Request: fold
Amino acid sequence: MDIEARAHSEHPEALRLWLRMLTCTQIVEKRVRGRLREQFDTTLPRFDLMAQLERAPGGLKMNELSRRMMVTGGNVTGITDQLVAEGLVERIDVEGDRRAYRVRLTSKGRRQFNDMARQHEEWILEAFSGLGEKDIATLHRLLGKVKEHVSAPQEAAS
Reply:
């Protein structure tokens, strides 16, 4: 039974919508995780870390990676150690700060990430293939409104 199945018709429509969105996210994520494991022998967190580095060719400091991925520094360190050992990323000293270093993709890492990213895009397109372009645009716009509303600073309760 998925999360959405817990909702009943007497629950507010907004709650039922939230549960549907969460269920859809979990289903798609589970499929992506499985395919990354099957086709590339990797994990979604490793893919996510490499995606962040792909967007920053000069590399990122560990604390920046942690912030962007919204995970602890320990998680980033563990994944980075694995990727360094496989020759997919490298650590570079930060000039003027002997305690810090940047992490960036190696050329091998960039090639591997590009292969994974192409497949990832196909999987996501497939997941949304049941919707037309207009449906996708409408859903994107509506979820943007939700994002804007929940991201707005909340006024302090009096």
